[in-house]
Design brief:
4 strands; 5 helices; Alpha-Beta Plaits; four-stranded antiparallel sheet; alpha+beta
Length: 145
């Protein structure tokens, strides 16, 4: 990993749809050399994949909640991740210390939509129960680095 690889990573982090020419220009490489370097970063697992980020506000998903998830049995984090990733209203999910096994951030169009999504979380065999806190207003919303 060198400064060229770091520039390639910065470029695709800003825009995963960057062309090889754009990546090469940012990193000081030809498009074909940029492709080879990017392919190597993917093959080595440095870049785990490319994804689309959905702007939930543009969808009109203005209801937000933090949901504590309490698991039944002892599912692995991978089992819990697989159960939660199928629910598009789940924006983030983390295993946590404390009484709950996981904390989930969810967005939905409205409270009935949010309730249906929480019910889908509860329907998972890995989940015993949930406790939800509805967001009333955002006080600070800093972008992530």
């Amino acid at each position: 990993m060198d400064s060229i690889d770091e520039e390639i990573i910065r470029c695709v982090t800003r825009d995963a749809r960057s062309t090889y020419a754009e990546i090469g220009q940012a990193a000081g490489l030809s498009p074909s050399a940029a492709k080879r370097r990017l392919d190597r970063l993917v093959a080595n697992g440095v870049i785990a994949g490319f994804t689309a980020l959905v702007n939930t506000e543009a969808l009109g998903w203005n209801a937000e909640a933090f949901v504590e998830v309490y698991c039944s049995g002892n599912p692995t984090p991978e089992q819990l991740r697989r159960a939660l990733e199928e629910i598009p209203e789940v924006i983030e999910a983390c295993t946590v210390s404390g009484a709950a096994d996981a904390m989930v951030y969810m967005r939905a169009a409205d409270i009935p939509h949010l309730e249906r999504a929480v019910q889908r979380v509860r329907a998972s065999r890995a989940v015993d129960r949930t406790e939800s806190v509805i967001v009333l207003s955002r006080l600070i919303n800093r972008p992530r680095p």
